[in-house]
Each structure stands twice: as C-alpha cells, then as structure tokens.
Amino acid sequence: MAGGGVEVEAKLRLRDCRELEEVEKRLQELGAVHEEDVAEEDTYYQHPCRDFAETDEALRVRLVDGRAELTYKGPKRIIGGSKARAEYTITLEDPSSARRILEALGFRPAAVVRKRRSYYRLGNISVSLDRVEGLGCFLEAEYTGEGGQEAARAIEEALEKLGVAERERIYKSYLELLLEKKAPEA
Hints:
Helices cover 26% and strands 46% of the residues. It is α+β, with helices and mostly antiparallel strands. An 8-stranded antiparallel beta barrel has the order 1-6-4-3-2-7-8-9, surrounded by 4 helices. Strand 5 and strand 6 (82-91) form a beta hairpin.
C-alpha cells in the first residue's frame, strides 16, 4: 500500500507451489489483470528501545527491481478471516543512506525475507502469489479501498472465486514465520 492507511489482507498457506499455477490459471479465467512479477528483498529492523515482536509492529526496507521503500506496519487486528493494520510507506531514493540513518539511530537489522511475487488485480483486490525463500508458497489478497467489514467480505468473495477460501489462514508475517522456523526448539 503506497502512502498510508489501513491494510486489510488475508494470507493463505498453499498446499504446495504447484497450487500457485492452479490459482494463476483461475485468476486468468476470472479476467484478473497480471500487473508484474518481481523479486522482493525485505530487511526488517528492530527498534533500539522496544521489542517489535512484543508490540506487533514492523519496520522494513524493501528492495524491488531497483526501487526501494521504507514501510512501518502497526499492530494487527483480525476482521473476519483477514487481518488489518496501519501501514505507512515512503519511496527511498537512496536505500543505503536510509539504512545508515536507521542504524545510526540504533535500529538493527533483524532478518531478511526474500520472495518471488506475482501481482494480479481482481477488481478491488490485489492478489499476490508468493514463493517465499525458506517458507514455501502463499497467496495474499489485499483490499485496495477503505478498510473494515466491507473489505473483509470482498476478500472472502475473491478467495471463494479462486477456490482457496478453505486453505490455512496465516495471521503472522513472513518475518514472524521465518524467525519461528530459525528459533531453536526448547
């Protein structure tokens, strides 16, 4: 979401990566517009004075095909089968200077999430088909209008049309999933 506002999205874990191809075919049958295929590298930062894992916030620098942006995400709340959170994004002209500024202020890189993502537009729903390094394949459906119950209903309708509404819902970020996977078992 460029700029700022409330992000409302559903994230689903797919059975396997072959299912991405099935969903892509269904998107095409429904007349969805293929917007782009990208490689995204997200570096997440830890705040020097508070634990973002405890406050359920995130700060990241995203690199995408020569473009860069800085995004803050606020705590999540669940609306139906979707999650909503404040999100503010700015475009970075010089990502390495932005990283140096963050680190000079005490922010430290926490983890890097890499993914291949295909973006589709299905009405007012942005559908992302994701291959996340170290985690597998996922689908994200994000409502692009005002948030709330209307957004959650529109997302559910799109997921029904795509035949994936019954897949496992993931309310954690890719960062949280990756850190859980890397954490030593007790």
